[in-house]
Amino acid sequence: MLSTDLVVHELYSSSDVVSAVRARFGEAVAPGGVVDRAELARRAFARPEDREWLEGLLWPRVRSRMTEWRSAVSTAADPPVAAVVEVPLLFESGMDGVFDATIAVIANEDLRAERAGARGHEALAERSARQLSQHEKAHRATYVVVNDGTVQDLEGKLSAVLEMLRS
Q1: Environment class of residue 146 by beta-carbon count within 10 Å: exposed (0-12), middle (13-18) or buried (19+)?
Q2: pLDDT at 93
Q3: Which of 23, 71, 107, 153 is the most buried (most CB within 10 A)?
Q4: How far apart are alpha carbons 139 and 106 in whole angstroms?
Q5: Per-residue pLDDT, 8
Q6: Mean pLDDT by 10-residue block, N- to C-terminus, for the chain (167 residues)?
């Protein structure tokens, strides 16, 4: 599995991304050359043009990394049944078209906010405003999984979808 969130975290340690975000948002977003993701989120989500700029910086790099990973997986000696890529802003980024199938993992808004807050995400209202509604994601996805229980419940539901894909 490839997590595009982890790819973004890796990108935040690359010198070209650090230089670009410092030039755009100032030294406070990368003190000592390390991107402060909370500070960057506060600044980038404060204005739509700053968010769009950051997405324009990151998303092409994420797409490139994803393409490289998928190519490596598909040419492996023993390729997996499914190459799973986790993309939080899949539909918003326009990356959904490169997949054979998509799975929207949805939950009610209160639960989503609670979980995001527990993970320490900053600028929750601004982030949510940028995202499609859970209903719209469910409508666009090939499969929908409701994540209203435990991690084990979610794993079971996702395993069932992967079993369907296997057939």
Answers
A1: middle
A2: 86
A3: 107
A4: 11
A5: 95
A6: 94 96 96 92 92 95 94 90 89 89 89 73 58 90 93 93 86
Q: Give the pairing of strands 2-3 and 103-106.
A: unpaired
Query: To 10 degrees, what angle do helices 37-44 and 48-74 make?
Result: 120
Q: What pLDDT is stored for residue 121 in this prediction?
A: 58
Rounded to whole angstroms, the Cα distance separating 3 from 8 reads 9
Q: Give the type of residue at 34.
A: V
Contacts of 103 (CB under 8 A, 6+ apart): 141, 142, 143, 144, 145, 158, 161
What is the DSSP annotation of the chain? Answer: -EEHHHHHHHHTTSHHHHHHHHHHH-GGGSGGG---HHHHHHHHTTSHHHHHHHHHHHHHHHHHHHHHHHHHHHTSSS--S---EE-TTHHHHTGGGG-S--EEEE--HHHHHHHHHHTT-S-HHHHHHHSPPHHHHHHHSSEEEE--S-HHHHHHHHHHHHHHHH-
Residue 136: other Cβ atoms inside 10 A: 13
**pLDDT score, position 127:** 57
Residue 131's closest CA among 161, 149, 104?
104
